[in-house]
Amino acid sequence: MARNDLIVVDYDDQTPQVARNALGQLGLADVLDVHQVSSPDEALEWLGANEATLVVLCIDTPPAKQDKGPFSFRAVRTLRKEADEVPLLVVSGLADQATLDQHASFPGHADGYLRKPLSLDDLCAEFLRLLPDSISQQAQGESQEIDITEVQLDAQTEEINLAEAVSHVVRGMSNRKGSAGKSAPAKRPKTPASDDTLALREWAAALEQSQAALQAELEAKEEAAKVARDVYDSELEALREQHERLLRDARKLKEAYLKTRDELERRVEVERSIAEEHERELAERAARIEALEDDLAQDRQGREEVDETLAQRAARIEALEAELNQARQGREEVDETLAQRAARIEALEAELDQARQGREEVDEALAQRAARIEALEAELDQTRQGRE
Question: In whole angstroms, what separates CA 96 from the centre of its chain?
Answer without folding.
Answer: 25
